[in-house]
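Hello forum,

I keep getting stuck at the same step: I have a sequence, I want structure tokens, and every attempt I make locally crashes halfway through. Rather than fight my setup again tonight, could one of you with a working pipeline run this one for me? It's a single chain of 231 residues.
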Amino acid sequence: RAENPVFNEIFQYKAPSMEDLCSMTLWLTVWDTRQLGHNMFLGEVRIQLDSIQITTLKPSWWQLQHLEDSHFRGSILLGLMYCPSPDDKKKKKTCLKLKVVEARDLPLMDNNRTNPYAALYLLPKTESKDHKYKLQMKKNTVNPKWNAEVNFNYLDSAEIEDNGIEIQMLHLGKVEKQKQCVLIGVVRLCQHKVNINSALDGRGIEVLHWKEALSKPGVWVEKWHNLRSWE
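Reply #2:
Ran it on my machine without issues. Output:
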């Protein structure tokens, strides 16, 4: 029994090339071994290998995350920038900038094809065209890249903490020759509940990303997020 276990083990994995290795994700799970019954899941870490220095064995600390979904839906790299109005008398000039860089390891959908696109909404949702966007659909790829930037304008700086941004990853497929949109997963960047559907409230790194961006006005803050189910 140990609450602070020390392993000091090295594992070696083979990859065809450095380029292939940089496109992979290292997935580590930690479990509690039980003598009777099932082992208990303690947490996981997913590391995008192109985000770290992989030519050195220098150790780093990583925070274990909860397994939010039994089915991994892929991950997405998002950038967020808070741009408050320089004039206190013009609070409605405040802006949130969202950058959708890329997604990785999306699941295969119908006919073993995935045609992903992203829908972006300011929360709480409004009918304003300035508060919702749809990114271009990428054909037949589970690792789409957009590098797209959108602005959510005309926000009130005094109420910015009550806002949030919802990112929906969807697949455009066909059922009996009819086009159909299927949700792959969502990410919600917000500080606290923005509507009564608490199942879609911000969680874990989503909340941390939101808070860090608001604390660093004018600075891009980028983080990877695991897509999660609607519920």
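The first strand starts at residue 25 and ends at 32. If your local run keeps crashing, start a new thread with the error log.
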